[in-house]
């Protein structure tokens, strides 16, 4: 597989009042203000864990220091968390591809401030994946930094979705199948959970899994499993639902 490129107190009062009233912030209940926004990590002093998905049960793969500035790309509903700014089910996808609870992020609002995260549609019921999108993403984050899957990008994606293997010899064959059967989308940013397909110089192709908002996780990011922009690989083909009809 080809290598990727180098890759305020006022809000607290508002949230506290909402918690007393039993309210929680839920994505989609109001019009988002922007495609991205800046926030500040506010904890009691400890670093904030960045997770693979919207809940404390998802893999924590790095931390962010209290007081650090972060960029929010989208927000989604997940596990209810009580933190600095009260209780909320709102989780923020950050520019590094991970998620944190909005209960610890100062944005100037107790509600949604950026677009809701877009999720890929379901695969055909004739071949349902053993593992759903968030579980697949979490599985890949559990291997973050590993070089064991180099040149095995298609197997890595298939195993992330719960299969033993994809049933295709190369990602180029897989991408060709998705294209010839009408599953390959060549416009729009790949939604969270989508398979993202590429050509490469060796003719074997490449595939990764979308984290949403222009981010993917996969093999061959500086020789390891890592996060990159979906266009950082120079031969982008498009994205598809996570449909692996030959998987076993």
What does this structure look like?
Keywords: Signal. It comes from Dactylosporangium salmoneum. Helices cover 16% and strands 29% of the residues. The protein has 248 residues and is an alpha+beta fold. The protein folds into 2 domains: 9-106, SH3 Domains (SH3 type barrels); 125-240, endopeptidase fold (from Nostoc punctiforme), CATH 3.90.1720. A 5-stranded antiparallel sheet has the order 6-5-4-1-7. A 5-stranded antiparallel sheet has the order 11-10-9-8-12, with helices on one face. A hairpin with a 2-residue loop joins strand 9 (206-212) and strand 10. Helix 2 (133-141) crosses helix 3 (153-160). The model is unreliable at 1-32 (pLDDT under 50).
Task: Note the topology.
Blueprint: H1 9-20, E1 37-41, E2 48-51, E3 60-64, E4 69-83, E5 86-94, E6 99-101, E7 105-106, H2 133-141, H3 153-160, H4 171-180, E8 195-198, E9 206-212, E10 215-221, E11 224-229, E12 236-240
Short description:
This protein has 248 residues and is of the alpha+beta class. It folds into 2 domains: 9-106, SH3 type barrels, CATH 2.30.30; 125-240, endopeptidase fold (from Nostoc punctiforme) (Alpha-Beta Complex), CATH 3.90.1720. The protein has helices spanning 9-20, 133-141, 153-160, 171-180; strands spanning 37-41, 48-51, 60-64, 69-83, 86-94, 99-101, 105-106, 195-198, 206-212, 215-221, 224-229, 236-240.
């Amino acid at each position: 597989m080809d290598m990727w490129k180098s890759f305020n107190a006022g809000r607290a009062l508002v949230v506290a009042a909402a918690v007393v009233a039993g309210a929680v912030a839920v994505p989609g209940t109001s019009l988002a203000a922007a495609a991205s926004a800046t926030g500040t990590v506010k904890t009691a002093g400890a670093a904030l864990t960045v997770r693979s998905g919207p809940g404390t049960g998802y893999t924590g793969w790095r931390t962010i220091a209290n007081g650090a500035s972060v960029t929010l790309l989208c927000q989604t509903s997940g596990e209810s968390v009580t933190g600095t700014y009260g209780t909320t089910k709102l989780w923020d996808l950050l520019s590094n591809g991970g998620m944190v609870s909005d209960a610890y992020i100062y944005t100037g609002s107790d509600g949604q401030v950026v677009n809701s995260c877009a999720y890929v549609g379901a695969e055909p019921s004739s071949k349902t994946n053993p593992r759903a999108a968030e579980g697949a993403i979490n599985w890949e984050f559990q291997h973050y930094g590993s070089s064991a899957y180099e040149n095995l990008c298609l197997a890595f994606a298939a195993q992330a979705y719960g299969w033993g293997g994809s049933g295709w010899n190369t990602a180029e064959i897989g991408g060709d199948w998705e294209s010839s059967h009408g599953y390959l989308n060549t416009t729009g940013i790949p939604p969270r959970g989508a398979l993202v397909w590429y050509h490469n110089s060796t003719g074997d192709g490449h595939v990764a899994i979308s984290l949403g908002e222009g981010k993917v996780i996969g093999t061959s990011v500086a020789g390891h499993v890592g996060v990159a922009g979906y266009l950082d690989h120079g031969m982008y083909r498009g994205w598809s639902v996570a449909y692996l009809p030959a998987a076993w």
